[in-house]
Amino acid sequence: MSLWTEYKSKLVSAAEAARVVKSGDWVDYHFGLASPRELDAALALRRDELADVKIRGGMRVTPLAAVECDPEREHFIYNSWHMTGYERKLGDRGLCSYIPMIFRHMPLYYRKSLEVDVSFSVVSPMDENGYFNFSFTNASGAAICETAKKVVVEVNDKLPPVPCGRENAIHLSQVDMVVEGSSPDLPTLDPVPFGDLENRIAAQIIERLRDGVTIQLGIGALPNAVGAMIARSDLRELGVHTEMLVDAYRDMALAGKITDRVKKVEPGRSVFSFAMGSQAFYDWMRADLDRFCTLPIDYINDPTIIAANENVVTVNNGLEVDLRGQVTSETAGRRQISGTGGQLDFVTGGYQAPLGQSFICLTSTYMDKAEGRLKSRIRPDLPSGAVVTDPRSQIHCLVTEWGLAELAGRSMWERAERIINIAHPDFREELIQEAQKLGLWRRSNRIA
What average pLDDT does the structure give for the chain? Predict the structure, then answer.
């Protein structure tokens, strides 16, 4: 049987593909741009026929029909590996449950611990050799499809194949059904804006960078500020090794800063596991696909691989930190804001590299809208119910607009002093008093 004959034999409508789902099944929606839209809509139409269908996904930015059609959560139970703003709102309504994870273990979770009855994912059109490319999302696509009892792909011709990579495609012989979707435009995630405080933080990081560094930036205002400042700097010969490719890399590349020539892992190409950004960002990627290499997350986020780029710099956001150096980057109290993602992977790998640096950045204060007053992000203890994203034992550098605190290997009283040094001045005396109560303060200490 020829490839195209086999292809046509597996070609079905979204409605027909959705009928493979049974009550009680685990259905996987993959991650980010691989998350299905037409299959999701078709599954939602079967709501009254189904019960207790569990759906896994993550980084979803467009509405989920199967979730929105079932506000009582009797038919579809959605679970997210990493929550976007949309998924956070679902969580506030009791319609999205978070899945705790370390990102580099995601393929291992599927291969070792999870069941998948049906895999629904979006892929690029089949090539002449019978492969559907995972395109801009290669976190754990291969592992999910290997585990699934039924594999259904939704083709979107707006997703280009990324030719360089590993575990970045699935063959027709491994697919049970093919749905040719209407190829909607890719969901966009516009860059988070930043201001003066973020620029003050970014400036401190830029001072510590040198030509030839390999860059990892997380998502959010602070990493965006760093990327924009690098684009305006005199830095040269930068490399990219990141889990998520975002608009900030486009800015640096267009400014001529990224060459990938001197980095050690996959030299000559910018490596990533998944990408999401603005329409201009997608257009930039499509225009020069050969400059990229897409690799599974268990490779990209392996701290040993990260550290092999001996001059790697990792920059990520935090939400709050306590006087022991514990950071939450994913919860506000008990409310899940995002997820652990790969932050801990890059904090660890960045510090392990011989010349590496890892930065957790946060503005020193935020405005509590409910109370109408300014509050410190640096606290004696994390709020009740908060999740520790980065343990005190693995933080390297903490940065606010007031300074940079190196915490690696420091005692408890040294940590407290250094962290209070970069708190907002209006809160420092109060934090000293709390540090004394916690036994974390030495009388001889002086705040700079």
Answer: 96
Tens of pLDDT, residue by residue over 182-211, are 999 999 998 889 999 999 999 999 999 999
* pTM beyond 0.90, yes or no: yes
**Helix, coil or strand: residue 274:** strand
User: What are the backbone dihedrals phi and psi of residue 38, each rounded to the nearest 5 degrees, phi first?
Assistant: -75, -40
Q: Which residue has the tokens 């009680």?
A: 24
**Which of 78, 74, 123 is closest to 96 using CA atoms?**
78
Determine contact, residues 136/159, Cβ cutoff 8 Å. Answer: yes
- Active site positions, annotated: 243
Cα separation, 260 vs 347, whole angstroms = 21
344-377 burial, b for 16+ CB within 10 Å, e for fewer? bbbbbbbbbbeebbbbbbbbbbeeeeeeeeeebb
What the block records as the tokens of 120 is 């629904």
Homologous superfamily in CATH for domain 3-180: Glutaconate Coenzyme A-transferase (3.40.1080.10)
pLDDT score recorded for residue 369: 86
φ/ψ bin of 159: left (φ > 0), alpha (ψ from -120 to 50), beta (otherwise):
beta
Half-sphere exposure of 6 (CA within 13 A, CB side): 14
Residues 183, 276: Cα–Cα separation, whole Å: 17
Alpha carbons 248 and 229: distance in angstroms, whole number: 10
Distance (Å, whole) CA 221 – CA 71: 32
Q: Give the tens place of pLDDT for each residue, 350-381.
A: 999 999 999 999 999 999 888 889 999 999 99
Superfamily of domain 196-437: Acetyl-CoA hydrolase/transferase C-terminal domain (3.40.1080.20)
Rg (CA), the chain: 23
If you ran DSSP here, which 8-state letter would residue 156 be given? -
